[in-house]
């Protein structure tokens, strides 16, 4: 599983920065096009130079289907999915209450076996400014590290875990998840 999971094209920091800038532009465009709306922007937390592979795409297609089913009670206005060398990107645009959408996706992140690998942003327009809805707005604690359960941002800043350690843990999480799925 490990080898196939991280068997993809490596990307460098400049490609990742360009991808981040392009995502921000896509988010802005979608928010303006469908305003008033709630944008759900999903990427994956995949450490290391390989951000996408056939195995990653296959596994997360299933996870995104589960998330879409969880969000089915909200009216979906638009969706876009991209499979790029810099990672998978999913955009969902809904009508509804941004705090309620954030509550549902935060519960999904916490409750799904691979939820901690998802980076799900819920964004709405405040005037002309895209405004993300934070977990703290719901009274939820910050995200936890999927290895040691400490605050994720603290682990990331201090580089507490090596890339290999994180990749091995992710491979184990995905193997455990896929073993419970029907063929």
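Q: What amino acid sequence fits the structure above?
A:
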């Amino acid at each position: 599983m490990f080898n196939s999971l991280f068997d993809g094209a490596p990307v460098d920091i400049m490609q990742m920065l360009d991808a981040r800038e392009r995502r921000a532009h896509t988010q802005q465009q979608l928010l303006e096009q469908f305003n008033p709306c709630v944008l759900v922007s999903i990427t994956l937390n995949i450490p290391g130079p390989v951000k996408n592979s056939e195995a990653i795409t296959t596994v997360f297609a299933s996870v995104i289907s589960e998330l879409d089913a969880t969000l089915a009670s909200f009216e979906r206005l638009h969706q876009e999915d991209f499979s790029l060398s810099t990672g998978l990107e999913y955009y969902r645009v809904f009508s509804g209450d941004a705090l309620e959408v954030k509550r549902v996706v935060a519960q999904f992140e916490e409750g799904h076996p691979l939820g901690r690998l998802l980076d799900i942003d819920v964004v709405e327009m405040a005037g002309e400014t895209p405004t993300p809805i934070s977990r703290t707005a719901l009274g939820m604690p910050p995200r936890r590290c999927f290895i040691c359960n400490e605050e994720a941002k603290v682990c990331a800043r201090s580089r507490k875990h090596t890339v290999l350690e994180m990749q091995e843990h992710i491979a184990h999480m995905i193997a455990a998840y896929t073993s419970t799925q029907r063929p």
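Q: And what stands out in the fold?
A: The first helix runs from residue 2 to 5.
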